[in-house]
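Full entry
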Amino acid sequence: MGKKFYTSISIFLLAGLVFSTIPSLAQTESTLPSPGLTPDNPFYFLERFFEGIGTFFTFGDVAKAKRYTKLAAERVAEAKAVVDKNKPEVAEKALKRYQECLEKSLAKAEEAQAKGKSVAEVTEIVSQATIKHLAVLEEVLEKVPEPAKSAVLQAREVSKTGHVKALEALSKEKPERAVKLNIQAIQNRLGKIKSEAREGDEQGVERVMADFAVFQTLLERKGKENKMVLANLVAEAMTNQIEDLDEIEDEVENFSPQMTERVKIIKTNAINGQIDILRSLAEVNPEKAAEIFGAAAEKRLNKAKQEVEDEDAEETEEAIKEFEKYAAFGQEISKIAQGIGKDTTTVEQLVARATTHHLEVLNDIYNKVPKPAKEAIQKAMTVSETGRQQAVEALKGKGALENIPETVPVPWEVKEKVFEGRGIPKPGIPKKEKTGKPEVETPKVEESETENPEIEEIEKPEAQEVEKPEVEIPEISPGPPAR
C-alpha cells in the first residue's frame, strides 16, 4: 500500500513537472494562456510548486528567459480572471508576480546576449507579449476600485519598460524587425488614444500618450542611428502617425486646455522628429528623402484645405506653419546630396515637381481664406517658391527641366520676398503698353479686399492693356491722376 502511494505521488509530481515545462499550445504572442488555478484557489500553491520545479529543470539563459516570459503571461491571465470574479485584492498578488517574472525574463536575455548568444527569438516574443499585456492591464484598470489601481498602474509601467528593453535587445540582432514591431506598437497606442478620446476619458488619453511618447522616442533614435536601413522605414511610418495625431487633436478639442496643448506639443515634436530623420536619410539616399518630403508636406496642405472648408482660420494657419517646416527642409535636400558627392538631378526634379504642386495648392488656399490669414500663407509660399526656384535654375543649367514649369502663379509680395531673400535684384514693376497716351509706371498697390485677388506670374513681361493708366489714389482726397 505504501509503495503504491509513493508511486502515485511520484507519477503525480512527474506529470506536474512535465506539464509545467511545456508551453501552452493555445498561447501565442498575441493571446494570453489559460489562467489555470488562480490565487484565490486553495490549491494554487501546488501550481506554484510545480512551476518552481519546471523552472529549476530549465537550463540555459535563453531557455529560462522564455520560461519566465511564459510565466509572466500566466500571471496577467490570473489577474484578469480574479478581477472578472470581482476579487481585485487577489489580483495584486498576481500582478506583483507578473513584474517579477518579466524582469527575470529580461535579465536572463541580457545575460545570454552578453555571452554572445542569440536572443532575437525571445526578445521578439517579449516585445509582442508586453503590448498585449498593456491592453489587458488597461481592461483590468477599468474594472478595479480606486485602492487597487496603483498595483495595476505599476504593472503597466513594468510592461511598457519591458517592451522597450526587449526592442533594444532585438535591434542589436535584427534592427529592421525591431523597428517594425515598434511601429506596430505605436499604431496600437494611437488607436487606443483615439478610443479613449472618443469616450471622453482624459486620464486615459494622458496615460496612453505617455506610452506613445516613449515608443516614438525610441523609434526616432533608431532611425538616426541606422540611416542606411532604418531611416527610410521610420520616416515613412511617421507620415501616417502625424495624420493620426491630427485626428486625435480634433477629438480632444473639448478636453482641458492643458490636454489640447499636450497633443499639439506631441504632434509638433513628431513633425520635427520626422524632418530630422529625413535629414539623416538625405545623407545616404537623398532621392528617397525628397519623395517622402513631398508626400509629408502635401499631407500638411491637405490638412489646411480641410480646415479652410471647415472655416477654421486658426487651424488653417497652424497647418500652414507645419507645412512651412517641410518647405524649409526642401531647400536643404539638394545641398545635402551635393555634400556627399551625389548627382543632384533626380533630387532637384523631385523637389521642383513637389513644390510646384504645393504652390498650386497654396494659391488655391490663399484665394479662399480671409485677409488676416493670408500673411501666414504668403510666408509659406515664399519658403516653398525659394526652394522651387533653386531647383528649377539648377535643372535649366543642366538642360534637365523636362516638363517642369519655369514659373507658377504667386502673389507679387511673395515674388519680392523671394528675390530679396536670394539677393537677386528685383525686376521692375511691369509697365503698360504704348497706346498713344502718356506712359505711366504702375505703382505697387495694396492688396485687394476681394476674396479672390488676381495673381500675376513672375515671368510675365507686360500687364494687360487698360483704358487709362492706373495710379495710386491718396487716402486724404481722390485728387487727379499723377503726372
About this structure: The first helix runs from residue 2 to 21. DSSP finds 16 helices and no strands in the chain.
